[in-house]
Amino acid sequence: MSDRTTAVPNDLNAFWMPFTANRQFKKNPRMFVAAKDMHYTTANGRQVLDGTAGLWCCNAGHARPKITEAVSKQVGELDYAPAFQMGHPKAFELANRLIDIAPEGMEHVFYTNSGSESVETALKLALAYHRARGEGSRTRLIGRERGYHGVNFGGISVGGIVKNRMHFGSLLTGVDHLPHTHDLEHNAFTRGRPTYGAHLADELERICALHDPSTIAAVIVEPLAGSTGVLIPPIDYLARLRKICDKHGILLIFDEVITGFGRLGKPFAAQRFDVLPDMITTAKGLTNGVIPMGAVLTTGAIHDAFMDGPENMIELFHGYTYSGNPVASAAGLATLETYREEGLLERAAEMASYWEDAAHSLKGLPHVIDIRNLGLIAGIELEPIEGHPTKRAFEAFLRCYDKGVLIRTTGDIIALSPPLIIEKHHIDELFGTLADVLKDLP
Ligand code: PXG
């Protein structure tokens, strides 16, 4: 045995887990070993109902045959093809299928491998687009408080989660932030979209006045902010942002890494809210979480601004080794086919009212200070334990897991986003278990 071999063969120490309390987890690990449809199987053989579609990504549920088969077949047929100056048919086919379901006006697809990379790509495209059109002074990027745009430098710069930013230096320069739209005082326990808060979009006018619009390249927002606890956009808020962007020649980017692929009852939130951005960032549900893949959808105008100069020149100096990877493309095609065959991109709309009633049935339980919902998403906000933020919700997470239900927490907010194949009896089980847990929570 080499002295480089780990002391204990299956020691948990080597794997530095992402966004995890590593020491706590490794003392009492929670391991999944299998998954099918709505359920995970734990290492000791328990079934756990998936209330979170993995991490908001397994929109068609788990181990769906069409996707499994497509991936297996593709690995044997064409495992990898160079992504630069070479192509393979499935990457083109998938781009077309994406445009088929995308909002009218989205015409091109740039592949990445994650939501974070989609965000970096969209921000870079915004800067380069203005430069290509002779407006190189537009360099500022505007995000929003409580926004989550992944973990790379661009994304954390425009993002608005303090802990994701504060440890990592000075970030990108020339970034400003809109205020978030979360307002319990006006909107607590709203079903669907809050009526209060559209005026917060007008803060963009203030930012424009401060910096001058000619210095601003793009505004990036999640149409519905997921990671910071399900913040539903007030009625008319997104349309107002669009209007102000148009007035000042600023690009609008919707980060649809969570809202894309049916979460709100339409393929994209842009369609649900009837607001067309200039770019849409995606990942997660694009391949049902099976193979890492992301994509940025752009309008024709964005793409065409680059298609200038000599034809033998590379138009955009950006891309990844795995952009449009064949196995990921095959997974994406099979995923879209599964969504289409089963009507999953519309299913959240069909289930929304049952889901909404079930979520709001938790009103009145101990510690519950807000419940909010849209499509197949719900957020349940708990009063934090004084001096111990996050502890109460995390305890709810642990207790639900012990009772066979997977939920997700962020701060003291419980976020639910099940696979779109969820049935009414699963909804009953999910909220029933959660209600039992909340009744006894310290
Ligand atoms: N943008 C948005 C809107 C996201 O929600 C990313 C970008 C980054 O994607 P990648 O693929 O780089 O992780 C995300 C990711 C949660 C949770 O429980 C949310 C995400 C990831 C993990 C957990 O809220 N969102």
TrEMBL record:
InterPro entries: Aminotrans_3 (IPR005814), Aminotrans_3_PPA_site (IPR049704), PyrdxlP-dep_Trfase (IPR015424), PyrdxlP-dep_Trfase_major (IPR015421), PyrdxlP-dep_Trfase_small (IPR015422). It comes from the Bacteria. GO terms for molecular function: adenosylmethionine-8-amino-7-oxononanoate transaminase activity; pyridoxal phosphate binding. Keywords: Aminotransferase, Pyridoxal phosphate, Transferase. Signal peptide: none annotated. Coiled coil: none annotated. One of its GO terms (biological process) is biotin biosynthetic process. Its cofactor is pyridoxal 5'-phosphate. PANTHER family: ADENOSYLMETHIONINE-8-AMINO-7-OXONONANOATE AMINOTRANSFERASE, BETA-ALANINE--PYRUVATE AMINOTRANSFERASE. Belongs to the class-III pyridoxal-phosphate-dependent aminotransferase family. This is Aspartate aminotransferase family protein. It comes from Pontivivens ytuae. The lineage of its organism: Bacteria, Pseudomonadati, Pseudomonadota, Alphaproteobacteria, Rhodobacterales.
